[in-house]
Every structure is written in structure tokens, then in C-alpha cells.
Design brief:
This protein has 8 helices and 12 strands. It is α+β, with helices and mostly antiparallel strands and about 270 residues long.
């Protein structure tokens, strides 16, 4: 694989502010200078170029402008940051504007060809594609159990994306005796060197058996067949060690900063 510096430069130039070739029905992608603003999702989303090109008071105004845009819609907003972004005080200025960081993840990149081996599926496990809504709902229910949170929105999100771009989203599930025990999906980004590995979750009782690894290889096979050079993952602390053993390399970290509209009658949710 190319040097970490070169891979990170490709990541920044090819994936930052990327508008998909087929936008799900009802979603809107707006390029606003260094920002990409996405609406009509579970919550608003801001993606930026590595260098925002503004600092100090101008950066504060940019942050507040986006916060107030989503406040006017009554929606929460996620501003996705990376550790190597400029200016370096972006995260502290987001905090000052009322944004709260969620868990930091490590951005890992691996060569597709090195991951595209035949999946070794544990005995008693069936790995297959999922495209129909009932399977997607079962995946969402499994994720809700894994993370002890409401992930029911995942079913509609995947269904909308599969409807708009079925060639570039590939969803796998793993079953045991008819129960969904793990799932993950591949998002191919046409015109780039990258495909993303997303959604990997496994029920606690089924971890440590190689299911997650099998789903990585299954997705890598699909990506290799499409000529994808690199696989990219925003890895949690649980999945990072597995992926590093498979040959993935850390290029940066990413942290979502989230602002949520205050409840009615509560004026403390907006700062600045």
C-alpha cells in the first residue's frame, strides 16, 4: 500500500464532501464552499474539506450559521470532524457553540486485494445478502440490541439507499438458526479508490467466532470484483484490533460533534 501520507491525501481529496451518484429520495446534498450539508436524514449532517479556510470569528459564524439553519428546521445536526482538520481549534469552537462530541473512532484503510480472501464462515452460521425490508428490519433490531439504543431508523435508511443505488450498496447479514446475529454493509464510491465498510455489529454471545472477519472478507470480495483499491472503516475500539490484525492501517481519527435542539421552553440548548 502507498504511504500513510499518500493514502490520507487520497482520502481527503476523494471522500471529503462526496455527493453520491444517486441521492436517496427526499435527501438533499448542498455544497456550501468548504462544507457539504445533508438534510432529510435521521439528523442533519455537515461534512467539510480538511481545511475550512476560515478561523477565529469567521469560523464561529460559520458554525452558528449551520446550527441555526437546522434549529430552524427543529433538527439535530452532526458535524463530522477529523483529527487533522484545520483550523486546529475547530473542535473547541464546536463545543463553545453547544456541540457535544460522541465517541471518537479510528479511520482505518486497507488494500482491498489483501482482504478479498474466501470468507471462512463459522459452523452453524449462514452469511447472505439482505435487500428486502423484513431483513433490514431484523438487522435494525439486532443493532438496537447490540448498542442498547433505538436503531429502528436503520431499516428505512438502508431501504431508501438500496432503492436509489442498488449497485453501490451491498448489505450482508449472518444468521444462526434463523436469528440475525451480525450484519454489515459495503458502500462503493464510484469514481474514487475507496469503498466504505459500515454497520458492522455482532450480538455479544456470538463474538469471538470469526463472524465479523467473515463479513469483512465477503465485502472485500465484492469490492475487489468492482476494482476498488482501498477499503475504509471508521472503527470503534472493539473492531479496531480485529481490523489491524487483518492489515488495516490507521490514517486519522474522526469524531462526530452533535447539536440537539433544546426542548420547548428550554433556552439553554443554543450558545453563541
Amino acid at each position: 500500500m502507498a504511504s500513510t501520507t499518500d493514502v490520507l491525501a487520497a482520502y481527503d481529496s476523494q471522500l471529503r464532501r462526496l455527493v453520491p451518484p444517486a441521492v436517496p429520495a427526499g435527501h438533499e446534498y448542498q455544497l456550501l464552499g468548504p462544507l457539504l450539508r445533508v438534510t432529510e436524514q435521521r439528523r442533519g449532517f455537515i461534512e467539510s474539506a480538511r481545511d475550512l479556510g476560515v478561523e477565529g470569528g469567521m469560523l464561529d459564524r460559520m458554525i452558528v450559521e449551520q446550527r441555526e439553519y437546522f434549529a430552524g428546521r427543529g433538527e439535530a445536526i452532526e458535524w463530522k470532524t477529523r483529527a487533522h482538520d484545520f483550523p486546529a481549534d475547530l473542535e473547541s469552537r464546536l463545543r463553545a457553540a453547544g456541540f457535544v462530541p460522541e465517541d471518537r473512532e479510528t479511520v482505518l484503510v486497507g488494500e482491498t486485494a489483501a482482504m478479498a480472501g474466501e470468507p471462512v464462515v463459522p459452523e452453524g452460521i449462514q452469511v447472505r445478502l439482505a435487500r428486502e425490508l423484513p431483513d433490514l428490519e431484523r438487522i435494525a433490531a439486532m443493532k438496537s440490541e447490540v448498542w442498547a439504543a433505538d436503531y429502528s431508523w436503520v431499516a428505512a435508511d438502508l431501504s431508501e439507499r438500496l432503492a436509489s443505488d442498488p449497485e453501490n450498496l451491498v448489505v450482508f447479514l449472518a444468521e444462526a438458526s434463523g436469528e440475525v446475529v451480525s450484519a454489515a454493509w459495503l458502500e462503493i464510491n464510484p469514481g474514487t479508490d475507496f469503498a466504505g465498510l459500515w454497520g458492522g455489529s455482532t450480538l455479544p454471545a456470538w463474538r469471538g467466532r470469526g463472524i465479523y472477519k467473515a463479513l469483512v472478507f465477503a465485502r472485500a470480495q465484492v469490492a475487489a470484483a468492482r476494482g476498488v483499491k482501498y477499503l475504509q472503516v471508521d472503527a470503534s475500539a472493539d473492531s479496531e484490533p480485529i481490523l489491524r490484525r487483518l492489515g488495516f492501517r490507521a490514517v486519522t481519527t474522526t469524531t462526530p460533534f452533535v447539536w440537539t435542539p433544546p426542548a420547548r421552553g428550554d433556552s439553554t440548548g443554543a450558545a453563541g
